[in-house]
Automatic annotation (TrEMBL):
This is ATP-binding cassette subfamily B protein. Gene3D superfamilies: ABC transporter type 1, transmembrane domain, P-loop containing nucleotide triphosphate hydrolases. InterPro entries: AAA+_ATPase (IPR003593), ABC1_TM_dom (IPR011527), ABC1_TM_sf (IPR036640), ABC_transporter-like_ATP-bd (IPR003439), P-loop_NTPase (IPR027417), Type_1_exporter (IPR039421). The chain crosses the membrane at residues 28-48, 60-80, 148-170, 245-266, 281-304. GO terms for cellular component: plasma membrane. Keywords: ATP-binding, Membrane, Nucleotide-binding, Transmembrane, Transmembrane helix. The lineage of its organism: Bacteria, Bacillati, Actinomycetota, Actinomycetes, Micromonosporales. Residues 148-302 form the ABC transmembrane type-1 domain. Residues 339-584 form the ABC transporter domain. One of its GO terms (molecular function) is ABC-type transporter activity. It is found in: Cell membrane.
Length: 613
């Protein structure tokens, strides 16, 4: 109940903030004209009693009241519907905006790995339109309750016992509410199956998956799994609906028995001469109104229950405990310094064991550090921690001696530039797709051109039909799609939009590139763009060991822990895991043209200051 009230308060609050005048008008107007609607029955009573007693004035007055009230109610209802629809849209829009902020606003991105957050967000996304509906349902319910109140008050004038009639609606209302609750619970329980179903639908319809789906003849298998996932969620929902429908039918039966009993009492009073014919007509009219209002109310309560449940889910997302979200952090950060990980570990939400760490590691300012290791060793997780995308589960990361947990993550992130393994394909204009790397320069064609040039991506744009102004991707009909390597080159250019980063993170930056492009990329990273004193720390993740052997420091990760570290020659001499991996790699691919910039050669930085624990 408390959840309901707080959800209703939130919806009304949002409506009032979105459009105060309309919100107040609707909330006052709708109940008001519903109460006035009861006066139709009074007019009818006057008409009938006037006609029976041959009192022309009474009959005419009754008729006039009936006509005026009917016209008023009709017009008022049209105006209120109009106002309510506008508000409904505005409330929906406001919740859309809030939902975007809830997902993309938090400091870190760990919530995207929490199945509970994802399931709740998925439900809220599916039911987005119900936010506006929640406001409409609240208003309509208030209107119907007012209509009930008006009808009951008039019936009580005829016979006080008739005022008890609404009590028989309570079991019906409870049954409707129970049904809605059961269906909502079934939907929550089936959310995971629904998410799977949608993922399978995407798989079967996504052009990127089409080659493998065709080649391995996966169509039938996907369809079968899709059906099975649907069956799981649908079975729960349908069973909840059926059980609810039986309870609702029982509630209706009880109410109908009570209504027939009430009408019987009034008929007896008319026959005994204690009630007028007009009053009998009044009760009959109000009785049928009550039935209509009860049908509306039973439907509306279900609607309201569902809509408020959606709002409650939204509130759960809003209250999601984001780890590491600390208010009032410092915005000061030293210009240069070593990046030091001290007992750092990270565990993904819901996982029992850490994906990384605990590790101790010093990354010297201006150095080039390669992170290598098997698949799943924790390399990308480490990169994400360095980018400040996850807060460490234990330990701390310091920069120039300052604990990054005490620094506003946005301040740290402006000092970092990165090319992620799962880089984003921004389906925008080509210049925007690169320019988003530094939003303040998104319209600066020269800056975008320089970034493209320095990432070796100028040819990608040069081949597009409208150059920088070409629309990319398949979302729009005039969009040009790119190859994976071309998209990756644009991601590299995006990473070059920040021209004076403190840290450069490159997670498999050449995975989609051909050998020539890779060699060219590495050459560009070798080219000094700044003085040795403020050269950035460059962290490169790569499986191509020959490309990173000249790094100042090579860190070898295995199952989330550092098993070896040091420069290439030292690691080869040690004849451990790295030497073994390198020998295999060189045998398979040759020693290559290779070699990522030893910033050391450039800046005289050496890895002697590096340590592990
Ligand atoms: N979202 C996630 N939820 C739970 N566990 C995850 C998640 N992402 C990664 N992991 C786990 O964390 C570990 C490290 O993953 P990570 O992606 O950091 O490895 P990696 O070294 O970058 O692998 P690769 O070379 O394949 O890219 C793996 O065991 C992986 O299964």
């Amino acid at each position: 109940m408390r959840n309901w009230l707080s959800a209703a308060r939130l919806v009304v609050g949002v409506a009032v903030r979105a459009d105060p005048r309309r919100a107040v008008l609707v909330m006052v107007f709708v109940p008001l004209f519903n109460i006035v609607a009861a006066a139709q029955a009074l007019g009818l009573r006057g008409m009938v009693d006037g006609a029976v007693a041959r009192q022309v004035t009474e009959a005419l007055t009754g008729g006039l009241v009936l006509v005026l009230v009917t016209v008023f109610v009709h017009q008022a209802s049209a105006v209120a519907t109009d106002l309510r629809q506008v508000l409904q849209q505005r409330v929906g829009l406001e919740f859309d905006r809030r939902l975007m902020t809830l997902c993309s606003g938090p400091t870190h991105i760990s919530h995207y790995h929490d199945p509970e957050f994802l399931d709740t967000a998925e439900l809220v996304r599916q039911r987005r339109t119900e936010f506006g509906g929640a406001f409409a349902a609240l208003v309509e319910n208030a209107g119907l309750l007012a209509r009930f109140a008006g009808a009951v008050a008039l019936m009580a004038i005829v016979s006080p016992v008739l005022a008890l009639l609404p009590l028989f609606i309570v079991p019906l209302a409870l049954a409707v509410r129970w049904q809605a609750t059961a269906v909502a619970a079934a939907e929550v329980a089936g959310a995971e199956a629904d998410r799977q179903r949608r993922a399978l639908l995407t798989l079967a319809t996504d052009p990127a998956a089409a080659p493998e789906v065709r080649l391995y003849r996966l169509g039938d298998e996907i369809a079968a799994r899709h059906r099975a996932a649907f069956a799981v969620s649908a079975r729960r929902r349908e069973s909840a609906r059926t059980r609810g429908a039986v309870a609702v039918a029982a509630g209706w039966l009880l109410f109908c028995i009570a209504l027939v009993a009430g009408l019987y009492l009034v008929t007896r009073s008319v026959l005994a001469g204690t009630a007028s014919a007009g009053e009998a007509v009044l009760v009959l009219l109000l009785g049928t109104r009550l039935v209509g209002a009860t049908i509306g109310l039973s439907w509306l309560i279900g609607w309201l229950r569902r809509a408020l449940h959606t709002v409650a889910l939204y509130q759960r997302l809003a209250g999601y405990p984001h780890p590491g979200a600390v208010e009032g952090r410092s915005r000061d950060l030293p210009e240069q310094g070593d990046l030091v990980l001290d007992g750092v570990s990270f565990r993904y939400p819901g996982e029992a064991t850490p994906a990384l760490g605990p590790i101790d590691l010093r990354l010297p300012a201006g150095a080039t550090v390669a992170i290598v290791g098997d698949n799943g060793a924790g390399k990308s997780t480490l990169v994400a921690l360095l980018a400040g995308l996850y807060p460490p589960s234990t330990g701390r990361i310091t920069f120039g001696g300052q604990d990054l947990a005490q620094v506003d993550p946005d301040v740290w992130r402006t000092r970092v530039t990165a090319v992620f393994q799962d880089f984003c394909r921004f389906e925008l204009l080509a210049r925007e797709s690169v320019g988003v790397g530094r939003l303040s320069a998104i319209d600066d064609r020269e800056a975008v051109g320089r970034a493209l040039e320095s990432a070796g991506a100028a040819t990608v744009v040069g081949e597009l039909p409208a150059g920088l102004d070409s629309r990319l991707g398949r979302t729009f009909p005039d969009g040009t799609d790119l190859s994976s390597g071309q998209w990756q080159k644009l991601a590299l250019a995006r990473g070059r939009m920040r021209t004076t980063p403190t840290v450069v993170l490159l997670d498999e930056p050449a995975a989609s590139l051909d050998p020539d492009s890779e060699a060219e990329l590495l050459r560009r990273y070798r080219t000094p763009t700044r003085s040795a004193a403020d050269a950035p720390l460059t962290v490169v993740v790569s499986h191509r060991l020959t490309t990173v052997r000249d790094a100042d420091l090579i860190v070898v990760l295995h199952e989330g822990r550092i098993i070896e570290y040091g420069p290439h020659a030292e690691l080869i001499d040690r004849a451990g895991r790295y030497a073994e991996m390198y020998a295999l790699h060189a045998a398979a691919y040759g020693a290559g043209p290779t070699v990522l910039a030893a910033a050391a050669t450039r800046d005289g930085v050496r890895s002697g200051s590096t340590q592990t624990g």
